Fold these 4 entries.
Entry 1:
Amino acid sequence: MDVYHKGWAGRHINPHIHKVLSEQLTQPASESLQPGERLTITCQVSYSLSSYYTGWIRQPAGKGLEWIGMKNTGGSHYKDSLKNKFSIDLDSSNNRVTLNGQNMQPESQNFCARKSH
């Protein structure tokens, strides 16, 4: 069984995504998925989704961090090799950012993070 941990990345991950001390990003606890199952992870944030990009990063077991993409109400950016495998959806009225995709990496941890200005 593959485990997807959902937590907040609190260190520099990508030159464009940084730790944020004054904002909250909350994700549910870990859950298990079978290979090929649909991955859906929602991050609840305390800031305006029109003001900041929210990014998603994954870390397969035993490997380094990999940037998936980021989105705000004005647009989105994805890693070229992953842009057809993942989508990021915004629910601005509830301050939620959702990562959708196929379960491709066994025991992968997935993190949301806010891009600083």
Entry 2:
Amino acid sequence: MSFVETQAAFDPAVFRHAAKLGYLFEAPDVIAQIAAPVLLLTARSMMPGGDITAGLAAFETHWREGRRIHFEDTGYFLMFDQFESFVTALKDFLRA
């Protein structure tokens, strides 16, 4: 399909449904098995109306050792949008 055809076939209902999906890894039993320290970097949802609360709770309740850093003023590609802050957060985590 060409780009124009895919745009014409785009169904907004699919986009609205995707906005309601949480993190793909909300499985507490899987999270609890992670033995290494976890660095979870979050930003605002890329989907309008998206809610990351349930996914965050699954991680923060079940990880053995973890740290979450939220980047308030950025979107999905936080490593590009706030490169310096991203590198600083990663270095601080690796040095801890």
Entry 3:
Amino acid sequence: MLAGHLQEKGGKYYAVLNCKHHVGKRFPKWVPTDLPVKKGNKRPAEKKLDEFRGLYNEYGEQISEIVEIVSPSIPEQSCTVVSRTGDMLFADYMLYWLSYKETEVDPVTFAGYCDSVENHIYPYFKELGLTLSQLEPKHLREFYKFERIGDPEHGKGRKKGTTVVRYHSNIHNALEVAAEDGLVGKNAAHKQRPKTDKFIGSFYLPEEALECIRLAGGTWLEIAVLFGLFYGLRRSEIVGLKWQNFDFERNLFTIAHTVTTYYRKGQTRVSYAKDKTKNKSSMRTLPLIPLFREKLLALKEQQKEHRRLFGNSYNRKYLGYIYVNEIGELIKPDYISSTFKKFLEKNGLRHIRFHDTRHSCASLLLRNGVSMKEIQAWLGIATMEPRRTFMHTWIWRSLC
């Protein structure tokens, strides 16, 4: 009999079975019990789990095609467990796809998938009750429209085009898997990608950038502002900077480690560190200019003094990281964004997002005659296409 356990998702109990692919790699198979998470339902859910463990083989394939199970504590309620066929509800298939992707992507990406599927795609299509074989392109277009418009009466705000595109990406990916497995004849999401709002990032002019650097001097935000405006580093790259990646003899440093945060269900923000950047182009080595070298060496000595002063109270978990506070706690990416916003307001500086310091870096390089190819390498961008609109806007403004 298969090993398995109960898991709560979307306010309901699911049986999670420990299965494996035919090639040997293990994966969790999620089977809905259709029982809501509430007092008195835990034991019936456990009984369904035991029954499901005997209904599937080690490959997650249902031994009998359709089995009806009646909950002993709720005689009126019955549920039909259907194997993965075109008769499976599309909403339930999205949960299956989600469990499959958990072992395929990193935790940050998976957290984004969970938010899209569990909080938006699943509830909408579960209410419609459409099966995989019934799903048509028009249903997806209606869903995208619903997300863009929102539902103010029920407290649901409208979503940005880029957010809806993420939902579409998940749906398209899931239906591709369904098509490969022969569950559907074609991908209903094909050529249904919703339009996005054309976004043009803001940026600082040279005098604004210099004033921002001057005012940030001596604050905890100084490191972030300097690396953002001069090197165009992303938040995750700034927080991920380590002393071992700096060569003070050759005056070079390498961006090879990042720190991001995400929401894990049932927990607060979780930090995720990895020796990997956003893409291959993002792993790059840059020159360390004298101003940065002096500030970093001074910071290194300051951290030694903090370790001496705080002794056992100093957090040694993040030893080796550059961007830590007095007691050794790592400065989080979200802290940079929120503090930067308050910093601009306090000093009467024009509002831009922290990510716009990266845009500012690009515009300053362009102003000084640096080629697009060189800017691409400096910023660690895989392709310049997404940046061309921004660059052209800067050129237009510079001529006005």
Entry 4:
Amino acid sequence: MPRRFDTHPDTLPRSSSVAIIHPSDLHKELFTDSGAGTLIRRGDAIQKASSLSEFQDLDKIKKALLESQNNLDTEATDAEAVVDRFLEFLKVNPFTAYYDENMSGLAIILPPSADKPMATIASLTITKFGWLSNLAENMWSAIKTDNPSLCWRVSEEDENLVWFFEKADASFKHNGGVLFLLWLRL
């Protein structure tokens, strides 16, 4: 007979996970992930910003961008200088940032303009934990809701390349990267 939770998962911090496992399977799940139980992850809420002043800690933004700068400037050898130039660019240009509280994921989207008919993912940085905890899917859902047409470029060496192919309507391989397109959704 099922028992009630004494503490409801909604009262736990968003980064918490709860596993519901039968006692006879507990020994299998302590050090492995065999899937014997039910795992509930709340995850972090996706937040949005349209100006650098909306971020409480710019150093976290800079650190996240430094960890992965695939779409900032592929020819750069000085990552910190590239990130500094990108932040200066964002000070004077419109953008929307999607991120979680822990900065396990950060996406910078540039809106369509006269010379670019689609919004562009200028940067998408997701930590290993972010990929494993479904943060990428949650961010993608928020990005796609606000931007029905998108383009973005990813290195063909990216370990998550398959995920990007699944999200795109079209792709073009060029100079060590893959250009992805998501068409207008009606």
